[in-house]
Each structure stands twice: as C-alpha cells, then as structure tokens.
Amino acid sequence: MSAGTTIEAAKAAKAAKATKATKAAPAVDAVRTGQRIEAVLDRLATTGDPAARAAAEELVQALMDFYGAGLARMLHLLSTPVGRRTPGDPLAGLLGDELVASLLVLHDLHPEDRTTRITRALDSVRDHELDVVDFDEETGTLRLRAAGGGGCGCAASGTTAQQAAEGALACFAPEVTAVEVQAAGRSGEPTLLQIGTGPGTRATTAAPAPAKAP
C-alpha cells in the first residue's frame, strides 16, 4: 500500500468516525425543549424565591450565549472561501478552533482521541515550547517540560506557560485536570549560558567559574 493510499484511508476513517458521532447524537425537538425550559422557570416562580428564578434565567441566558457563539463560529469557519481554509482535512478548521472544539468535547462528539487533542492544545500555545512528559490517568495530571529557555529564568515564565497550557487544554482536553510544567534542564547539572556578541557571531558555551582556592 502506497503512502498516498494510507493517508487517504486514514482520512476516510476519521470522516466516518465524525459522521458516526454526529448520527449518534439524540434528536432534539427545539419547540419541546423551549417549552420544557419555560415549564422549569415557571415552577421556580411558584416557589416564591425570586433569587432562584433570577439565577435560573441567568443560567439559561449564559448557555444560550455560549451555544450561540459556537454556532456563529461554525458558520464563520464553514463560510470561509475554500482557498483560505486549512488544506487537507475539511474538518481541520472546526476541530482546531477552541470554541467549537470545546462544544464537541462537551458532548463527546470530537472525533479525535485525547493524545491528538492535547497536541492541538499545545500547538495553540506553541510560543511557550512545551513538550509532553507524561499523563497520569488516575489524577488527570499532565506533566510538561519547557523545551526552550525561559528568558532570564524568572519564575513568572513558568507560571505564564502553565496558565496558557491550562487555558488551551480546558477547551481541547478537559480530561486534563491539572498541569505541571518542569523547567528545561532540571537534571541537576549547572545551567549553561549561551553567550554571543551579535548576529552571525558563533555562540560559545560557558559554565559558572569554579571557586578560587583560599
């Protein structure tokens, strides 16, 4: 089997999985759903607790805003001219969008596995150069390593990278409930400094100078 045939077969399998997930979604009657929501709100009104009804109405509005934004984003991505879409998989634009992906994952409709979704999340914050170390199934902890240098080595760099990773993972892989970021070069070895005098100059490697004998 040629490489081209293998790639096409993989695409077909992925599309079939996405179609199967879509068909598996239960049918919903929009009119009946709206009536059900109104009935729940009416029941809350009869309790005589205005705060409870107000909270319920706020919750309904928040959900409508969330799903409305998701639908608007889908329409925008699908209406993008063909020449400006991500080449290859026609679903790539939808699956790679944080808002759309979060909706698909929420309803277990995202066709990609957890490993692929974690990779997507980290690709969306690639400026932080994070590599996966391992994932703890029991605790939901994802351990990452900062692949690049952290500037001057300030602690804020690691915190920023962790926050960025957590935000992206919440959309693409909510199975990850905790993130730990290890600094690059945590092997106990002295950190080497790259010293250069300007563009085009070959960098030299220097280690901390040994202490002078008394």
The coarse silhouette is globular
Instruction: Let me know the largest β-sheet.
Output: 3 strands, mixed
Q: Mean pLDDT, rounded to whole units? A: 74
Terminal residue distance: 72 Å
Number of helices: 7
Structural class: mainly alpha
Write the element-wise H/E pattern from the N-terminal end onward. HHHHHHEEHEEE
**CA-atom Rg in angstroms:** 25 Å
The portion of residues assigned to helices is 40-55%
Description:
This protein has 214 residues and is mainly alpha-helical. Helices cover 51% and strands 11% of the residues. It contains seven helices and five strands.
Topology:
Layout: H1 3-24, H2 30-46, H3 50-78, H4 92-95, H5 98-106, H6 114-123, E1 130-136, E2 141-146, H7 155-172, E3 178-182, E4 193-195, E5 204-206
Parallel strand pairs: 2-3
Antiparallel strand pairs: 1-2, 4-5
Helix pairs in contact: 2-3, 5-7, 6-7
List keywords for this structure.
214 residues, mainly alpha, disordered N terminus, two-stranded antiparallel ribbon
Briefly characterize the structure.
With 214 residues, this protein is mainly alpha-helical. The chain has helices at residues 3-24, 30-46, 50-78, 92-95, 98-106, 114-123, 155-172; strands at residues 130-136, 141-146, 178-182, 193-195, 204-206.
